[in-house]
Amino acid sequence: MKELSVAVMQPYFFPYAGYFRLMQRCEVLVIFDCVQFTRRSWISRNQFLRHDLTVDWLNMPLKKSQREIQIKDLQFRENSMFEINKFLVGDRLSSGEIDFLFDIHMSPIALLCRQLQWVADKLSFECKLVRSSDFQIDDKFRGEDRVIEIVKLMNATEYVNSSGGIEIYDENNFSKNGIKLKIFSPYTGPNTNILDRIVTENLQSIKSEINDQIKFQIGS
Q: pLDDT tens for residues 162-179?
């Protein structure tokens, strides 16, 4: 059987470069959208550079929802928009790219996936994006077991996770299911959102930085 390496991760709003190690290292990134949305998290907001090079929060204009809502079911507010005019990115990207990356005429999860794919394409990372909600996983699977079930449904042999996985995943549980667990070492590069870096830095330098930090604290 051909070896397949996958990652399962919640979608974030233009996350830091370390997130994209998953898309550089794996053949498939499963966007974990069948779990509860965490308010005031990196899923729906991030800090961006203003014109004066100070930083400020940019929030996704989400519709109010029940606390238990899952990421896949989020919606944008009607007649809303991203307030990007005060940020540096609005000066550095064409209006066509701005419209493409901040289009609220789709669901928030679809837009988050579009943004992640755009970044991966910019960095020439060949990784397929799929959504966990497409698997219709039984609710009896929770936490680590839910992730393992996704990996098994993908017929994958290797699961890669960010450094935070060291606190929540048990290597033996993955091994018992025929899956090799690999967890990245902590990322030592900037935690600046990736969009600001793309519009202000050399793409090859960002890509090299990510490649240089494909190191593991579990697995090899």
A: 999 999 999 999 999 999
- pLDDT tens digits, 71-105: 999 999 999 999 998 899 988 887 778 889 999 99
Helices (H), the chain: 21-25, 89-92, 95-101, 108-122, 143-153, 171-176, 194-200, 203-212
Residue 183 identity: I
What residue spans define the domains of the chain?
A: 5-218
When pLDDT is cut at 50, 70 and 90, the band that residue 2 belongs to is low
Residue 1 has pLDDT above 50, yes or no: no
- Strand, coil or helix: what is 152? helix
Kindly state the tokens that stand for 94: 């064409």
Tokens 């009607």, located at residue: 78
**How long is the chain?**
220
- Its sign, for the CA torsion 20, 115, 5, 201, is negative
Q: For residue 23, which amino acid is it?
A: M
The pTM score is: 0.95
Tokens of 139: 């609710």
Rounded-to-integer distance, Cα 181 and Cα 68, Å:
30
Contact 131, 109 (CB under 8 A): yes
Element (H, E) at 216: strand 216-218
Closest by CA position to 162, among listed 14, 15, 3, 2? 15
